[in-house]
Amino acid sequence: MTRETPFHKPHSTQVVGRSKVVGDDERFHNNLFVGHSGLAVYGEKAVNLQAVGNVYLAGAKPSTHDRAALVVADFNPGTKLEEKPDGWWLETPLDPAWESGQKRGVVTTESLGRAKIPDAPYDKPDGTPYRLDTDYFGKKRNTENPAPGPFRFPSKKGIRLKVWPKK
User: Fold this and answer.
1) Which of helix, strand or coil describes residue 45?
2) What are the domain boundaries of the chain?
């Protein structure tokens, strides 16, 4: 079955072309993958996969395209997400080596490159460039070598954070 997918002028609904999509246009920067397959499912045939600065735990495996992956196969953090009366709480142990074990950069529009088919940058809805130098809560990250995942590492032992609602 062949099907062409329309693509739009950046930040609009104006269709500017159609393309048969073969392969993905995926970006994975500075993530923590725990268990299961991680990015290994992409294999050798991934067409436009960008993976860098990721940490793989508890059996998760990197893609062959992942640059400088940190793999700690035998560490299972036992991460818990628990609903309490005041919201959802995340608890997980941390290892300082996840920060110091590899050099990673701040994710920016420039580091993400351009989407393949529309040849457009990954940018904010208003067209300004991304610079992901804050964490999930809006707190400044270490821009020299940000921690993997969506949170700063406030402690070297672990985190226990109310993640929803944020207030």
Assistant:
1) coil
2) 23-164
Question: Can you list the pairs that 74-78 forms with residues at least 24 positions away whose Cβ atoms lie under 8 Å?
Answer: 76/34, 76/35, 77/34
Single-letter residue type at 144: E
Of 14, 19, 26, nearest in space to 4 by CA: 19
> For residue 92, which of 108, 81, 104 has the smallest C-alpha distance?
81
How far apart are alpha carbons 70 and 75 in whole angstroms?
12
Q: How far is it, in rounded angstroms, from Cα 76 to Cα 58?
A: 5
With beta carbons less than 8 A apart as the criterion, state whether 31 and 18 touch.
no
* DSSP at 38: B
Q: Show Cβ contacts of residue 157 under 8 Å, excluding neighbours closer than 6 positions.
A: 93, 94
Report whether 68 contacts 52 (CB < 8 A): yes
Higher-pLDDT residue of 73 and 53 is: 53
Going by C-alpha positions, the residue among 24, 33, 83, 40 that lies closest to residue 54 is: 33
User: What pLDDT is stored for residue 44 in this prediction?
Assistant: 75
pTM summary value: 0.86
Name the band, by pLDDT with cuts 50, 70 and 90, for residue 23.
low
